[in-house]
Amino acid sequence: YDYDGPLMKTTVPGPRSQELTKQLGDIQNVGAVNFFCNYEDSRGNYLVDVDGNRMLDIYTQISSIPIGYNHPALLKLMTNPNNLSTFVNRPALGILPPENFPDKITESLLSIAPSGMTRVQTMACGSCANENAFKSIFIWYRNKERGHNTPSEEELTTCMTNQAPGCPDLSILSFMGGFHGRTLGCLATTHSKVIHKLDVPSFDWPVAPFPRLKYPLEEFSRENAQEEARCLEEVEDLIVKWRQKGKPVAGIIIEPIQAEGGDNHASPDFFRNLRNISRKHGCAFHVDEVQTGGGCTGKFWAHEHWGMDDPAEIVSFSKKLLTGGYYQKDELQADKPYRIFNTWMGDPSKNLFLVEVLNVIRRENLLEEVTRSGKALLNGLYELQAQYPGLLSRARGQGTFCAIDVRDAATRDRLLLQARDKGMLLGGCGDQSIRFRPALVFKEYHVHIFLNIFNDVLAQN
Amino acid sequence: YDYDGPLMKTTVPGPRSQELTKQLGDIQNVGAVNFFCNYEDSRGNYLVDVDGNRMLDIYTQISSIPIGYNHPALLKLMTNPNNLSTFVNRPALGILPPENFPDKITESLLSIAPSGMTRVQTMACGSCANENAFKSIFIWYRNKERGHNTPSEEELTTCMTNQAPGCPDLSILSFMGGFHGRTLGCLATTHSKVIHKLDVPSFDWPVAPFPRLKYPLEEFSRENAQEEARCLEEVEDLIVKWRQKGKPVAGIIIEPIQAEGGDNHASPDFFRNLRNISRKHGCAFHVDEVQTGGGCTGKFWAHEHWGMDDPAEIVSFSKKLLTGGYYQKDELQADKPYRIFNTWMGDPSKNLFLVEVLNVIRRENLLEEVTRSGKALLNGLYELQAQYPGLLSRARGQGTFCAIDVRDAATRDRLLLQARDKGMLLGGCGDQSIRFRPALVFKEYHVHIFLNIFNDVLAQN
Ligand code: FES
Question: Rounded to a whole number, what is the distance in angstroms from the first to the last CA of chain B?
């Protein structure tokens, strides 16, 4: 049901997109709008815009479309009359769940639970997933500190006005270049771009350096190991320092691959050592798989590449999973109801879709496809950077979760626009990287369509 | 299409609900689960549970169901094949909006925009609505302080590690008893219950007293005016004090009626004076209509009862609006793209539903119905508290957004369970209040069904 290639009728944005952008500009800031889409006509790997341009989508709504546009399995689900009421009546899941909720969660999220985790909490997006994961961590940490879960009178009183000890001075350690969302709690752990953080009050929480590795990783293993050791040492120093400051580190949050921050990788060893540091200092280890989860690295979770039985206390997700949420180890679950709570606690209609998405992933062996396409993509990028050493460097990736650096930001931005006008929709990340975030249905022949056209674009530059 | 009354087969939760609660308990904390629902069979004002009990729903999923369960207009929308792709392909609205987005927003949210506001930003829930509204406020405030919007080198550097001046020490003033959400930014302005806040780090932001009025308001206008004056004075004192502390108040957030905090009302005069104080001190005035918005007070927005042309800088919403978001005055819109941003920026499928909900509200004159039912409900509550003075007091309300106090928390909780076993689904709020949050299709005869049964319950106590 996929189209057989891109088809361009105008430059992008075309006249209709420009007109709609103007209209929307009276209502919102439209500075980030690329163009307007015709989602009805989009199919599989191809996004169609309102001017009839059909583009191979290698960005997929900021990496959030798991199995392409209008997948027949999802459309079919919509036409099943038994499912209608799930869309029409959004429940307050935490108090009045629908009959099929435990089964749907078991069929979907629990069937892909990370090693060692049998508990999952749905939330509506990646930010509330991380915010509530932080709260679980803080509650768990304070109960550990107290040795019991009965707060003092002073805690009960002070918390109502945001003061310690009721609202304790605890912190979450995060990494420079990390991205974990934009609500105020999440934003205190996000350090990818100035524009996200400027002018917003924040918490005095420690920020560790994330290894800046040389690629391909295999060729620079000694230098890279040194760089990783340096960062790990800094992590331990910060934990000690913040404890001394009276703001103990309750948790460490990290992405398996820093995405928004520029597709920064680290070795499985780095993560295993970091996990050990978290254990040693009694901090919860929180792996944020909002962008890496869902199969794009060739495994369902990127942390599976670390080969650990006990990878984390918390793994959060969103985007390709369609619902936000987080898995947690038993001891992290809040001790009382209503501590982790909000009106909707997710959206059962997204769980319905997720069940189907997982069926498609299994039926069509999409993780193997991703591994195959990813290999072709990365090899293609290696060849291109060999061919255009002045333009491209640092090709890297796992599965189709790939990236390459461009000489400078301006050239990167120009390449993105030129590629788009030729029917390739790509995204940037970090200061000067291009990131590849195709859907799981992006096959080897899509890789070749991309490489051919991208080659043409590079040749012009 | 509504049922003609409650119909109870078991006590609640019945055996099937208990079984499912046990099943879900292996996956999540289920301490807050009331019972499991059969949403297919629920209709209009009646929620049906998995044991076949049919209850008159006066709580409506924490006040989030606007026009009852399975409204035919919403079901019809689902069967229109033109709408399917909106459900199946959730876009990154901020960069790749669908063609009909400006029209749908114009038809829906803009058609009910508060006075003086022509700009609206959708978000996915009440928390991200408020979090992003705060960010808009902080950005606006800092640009005002600077006198321009070009940050210094120092700001650019410091913000990346959460430090001032890049992450400035600004604050939002909120009220004791207020509720604005549970993510860390929102939570710093929420002060309704200990359980929401305990153990979670927070910001040192000022908390003003909310007037504690005597009801009925008309009878105690002199005392109430004094109490309101005291609170307003305290607000000004706090603004001055926090400025001196180096943590200037950039915004004031308030609910038109404090909901979670116990249905606390204040007079239109109070809000008008508060609005003036915000102007005087250059703070943004942020009215949180997440629970009060959508028609339940008899006007679409509760702040309309204040009769002001320029009620606020920001009005946030969610729940009955089905999508979260906020309106803002032009000058509050962030100056650059990507400052207010996330992957989804709402969900167009919720906007589709909202268009239909607004059509139904207009077609069926539901605001007038609410006013009529609300009057009947409040009069009924006055009569009941006269009849049971030892049990009930402080009946209060606007539209059907009503509440009454019970002697103590234990009695309140018992009454709620007894009423539920007789087919009345009610919610609590504050320490000892019962809150009424029916859908907009709750008619006068539903009020009488409720009053009769509630009278029986009270007679037993
Ligand atoms: S914060 Fe996640 S949906 Fe609002």
Answer: 35
Decide if A41 contacts A48 (C-beta within 8 A).
Answer: yes
**Does A129 sit in the ligand 1 pocket, CB within 6 Å?**
no
- The pTM of this model reads 0.98
Which one of A198, A241, A417, A420 would you mutate to disrupt binding with B, by most B Cβ within 10 Å of its Cβ? A198
A223 C-alpha to ligand 1 centroid (Å): 41
Tell me if A177 sits within 8 A of A264, measured CB to CB.
yes
Pair type for strands A46-48 and A54-57 = antiparallel
Nearest to A201 among B120, B138, B160 (CB): B138
Considering B22, B169, B343, B456, which one is annotated as catalytic? B343
The two three-digit tokens of residue B397, written as one number: 């309300």
Q: What is the CA radius of gyration of chain B?
A: 23
| C-beta atoms surrounding B431 within 10 Å | 14
Encode chain A (461 residues) as per-residue pLDDT tens digits. 789 999 999 999 999 999 999 999 999 999 999 999 999 999 999 999 999 999 999 999 999 999 999 999 999 999 899 999 999 999 999 999 999 999 999 999 999 999 999 999 999 999 999 999 999 999 999 999 999 999 999 999 999 999 999 999 999 999 999 999 999 999 999 999 999 999 999 999 999 999 999 999 999 999 999 999 999 999 999 999 999 999 999 999 999 999 999 999 999 999 999 999 999 999 999 999 999 999 999 999 999 999 999 999 999 999 999 999 999 999 999 999 999 999 999 999 999 999 999 999 999 999 999 999 999 999 999 999 999 999 999 999 999 999 999 999 999 999 999 999 999 999 999 899 999 999 999 999 999 999 999 999 999 99
Query: Mind giving me the DSSP string for B160-219?
Result: TTT-TTTS---EEEEETT----SSHHHHTT--S-HHHHTT-------EEPPP---SSGGG
Exposed / middle / buried, residue A334 (Cβ in 10 Å: 0-12, 13-18, 19+): buried
Whether A194 sits inside 8 A of B159 (CB atoms) is yes
Query: How many Cα atoms are found within 13 Å in the side-chain-facing hemisphere of A240?
Result: 8
Q: How far is B449 from chain A (nearest CA, A)?
A: 23
Interface test with A, best of B186, B200, B260 (most A CBs within 10 A): B200
Check B179, B270, B300, B454 and give the catalytic one.
B179
- Does residue B125 line the site of ligand 1, with CB under 6 A? yes
State the pairing for strand pair B324-328/B314-317.
antiparallel
The CA distance from A108 to A321, in Å, is 10
| Distances A372 to A369, A393, A424, A443, B336 between C-alpha atoms, Å | 5, 22, 20, 8, 40
For residue A28, which residues of chain B lie inside 8 Å, CB to CB?
A: 119-121, 333
Catalytic (active site) residue B179 = yes
- The answer to whether B156 and A198 are in contact (CB under 8 A) is yes
In angstroms, the CA B199 to CA B197 distance is 6
Q: Which residue has the tokens 């803002």?
A: B328
Query: How far is the alpha carbon of B387 from chain A, nearest alpha carbon, in Å?
Result: 32
B119-123 vs B324-328, strand pairing mode? antiparallel
DSSP 8-state class, residue B69? B
Residues of chain B positioned with their CB less than 8 A from the CB of A188: 162, 184
Cβ of A96 and B34 within 8 Å? yes
Residue A191 to residue B23, Cβ atoms within 8 A: no
User: Do residues A132 and A120 touch, judged by C-beta distance below 8 A?
Assistant: no
* CB crowding B234-266: b at 16 or more within 10 Å, else e: ebeebbeebeeeebbbbbbbbbbbbbbbbbbbb
Closest CA to B288 of B311, B267, B308: B311
| Record: contact A194-B160, CB cut-off 8 A | yes
Asked whether the beta carbons of residue B342 and residue A181 sit closer than 8 angstroms, the reply is yes
